[in-house]
Amino acid sequence: MQLFKLHTALHMAKDFAEFAKDFQLDDKDLVITNDFLYKPFMEKLNLPCHFVMQEKYGLGEPSDEMMNQILHDLSGKEFKRVIGIGGGTVIDISKLFVIKGLKSDVMDAFDHKIPIVKDKTLIILPTTCGTGSEVTNISIAEIKSRHTKMGLADDAISPDHAVFVPELLKGLPFKPYACSSIDALVHAVESYVSPKANVYTRTFSLRAIDTIIEVFQKIVEKGQEYRHERHGDMLVAANMAGIAFGNAGVGAVHALSYPLGGNYHVPHGESNYQLFTEVFKAYHAKDPNGCIREIEAYLAARLGCKVDEVYDSLDALLSKLIPLKKLREYGMKDEEVRGFAENVLVTQQRLLKNNYVPFTVDEIEAIYRKLY
Ligand SMILES: [Fe+2]
After folding, report:
1. Which protein residues have their CB within 5 A of the ion that is ligand 1?
2. 253: closest CA among 342, 186, 176?
3. How far is the CA of 357 from the centre of ligand 1 (A)?
4. Which residue in 2, 331, 341, 364 has the most C-beta neighbors within 10 A?
5. What residues are paired with 81 via a beta bridge?
């Protein structure tokens, strides 16, 4: 059994100009980003790269339509490197664009009609502190032509370099900042109790938890603006959590949050936040004596509470960043709850196999009902 793998080289640059100089950006570089990042950080450098502004091709999650339109506009151009600077959408698009022979239809890659071979270097600069996508080998897209979501997981689309540039987080509003950081905390905690976890992945989980909880506590104490002093630390913490989950996987929190994203368009980090502590309470109720004891004791020490108060204390801290809502406030209806539980059990086995303990459909339904 493989214990641990990291394909990506990790870098820190104090600002975007330093990154551009270190990596000697030139006219063979394709930069995929957003206008709200390009204007303040890149425009003034007059770089010779080819820039694509993702939002010009549609808002929200990456889709086959969006990517095919970009491919169309890039036809005839050749690049040596793809540089994705942005959040989850930009990163997922950038990952696909390094595939050799991808000409006009990304479905050729999702359907494996072409071999998944990389012929360009992939560099990622994450501008949220949550996805961990800068070190994972997965790209997920909405396939509008088939009314479904598809994922491509292949080491060929793993980034070659991840570069942390703290100034790029300056414009991120507080709510997406908090949601993405909570998602990183979920990555660290969920991957800790995964059956695939081991001493390597747990080392990364614990170190990520230290920073994330400490920064959250200081934000509560000093105010939201404090976050700007710690963007470098949080980028690294989120990346460590990403390394842990890239190797050990995440489980029921991510699986159960799926219907919230799919049906009510709740952002990924926010939907995980809604499920987080209730899933762990259900884990604890089924088997309080496994490795969950270690993570509960570790979290309690950081939160300064007794171990049996750990989830209440965690909820208290997180709800000072973003208030926890009832699922019905997102539009979930009483009669839908059972169907969602059944659907999660069928469609989310990729994640549920990483659970600390397995859940039955009744147990999943009970978690939704508690939050409903
Ligand atoms: Fe996540």
Report:
1. 183
2. 186
3. 19
4. 364
5. 29, 121
